[in-house]
Amino acid sequence: MHSERRNEPRIPLPKILQAVDEVSGSVIGTVANISSQGLLILCYQCIEPNRILQLNIQVPLALIPDAPVLTLGVESVWTEADGAEGKYWCGFRIIDYAPDAAEILQRLIAQFS
Phi and psi dihedrals of 108, rounded to 5? Predict the structure, then answer.
């Protein structure tokens, strides 16, 4: 997988969190890991580097009952084909948060740390 330097470790997540492109409404993939600065998504199609997306991460009510959606502005940093599945690993940098997203993100990270 792609090597990169991070300021903080990413927390692995169960592959139940779907990432939805807010503009198109389509599911782009499942979140593999996350930190307060970025995330890795196993995407269903290639997302080229430097692409800006507004993502809604669907958080199951069983994880955080009062926060079903985590909304983030992200920029794709790199993409690498996952040949075994015909999908793509895509690394994203978080560039913007919805007003309540920082707190939801910290609660999600704490739950899996």
Answer: -65, -45
Return the domain boundaries, the chain: 11-112
Specify the amino acid at residue 15. K
In whole angstroms, what is the distance from residue 40 CA to residue 57 CA? 12
Q: Which two tokens stand for residue 87?
A: 């999908």
* Stated pTM of the model: 0.84
pLDDT at position 15, please?
A: 63
At the second CATH level, the architecture of 11-112 is Beta Barrel (2.40)
pLDDT band of 6, cuts 50, 70, 90: low
**Torsion over CA: 44, 7, 17, 19 (sign):** negative
> Residue 24: helix, strand or coil by DSSP?
coil
Beta carbons of 68 and 17 less than 8 angstroms apart: no
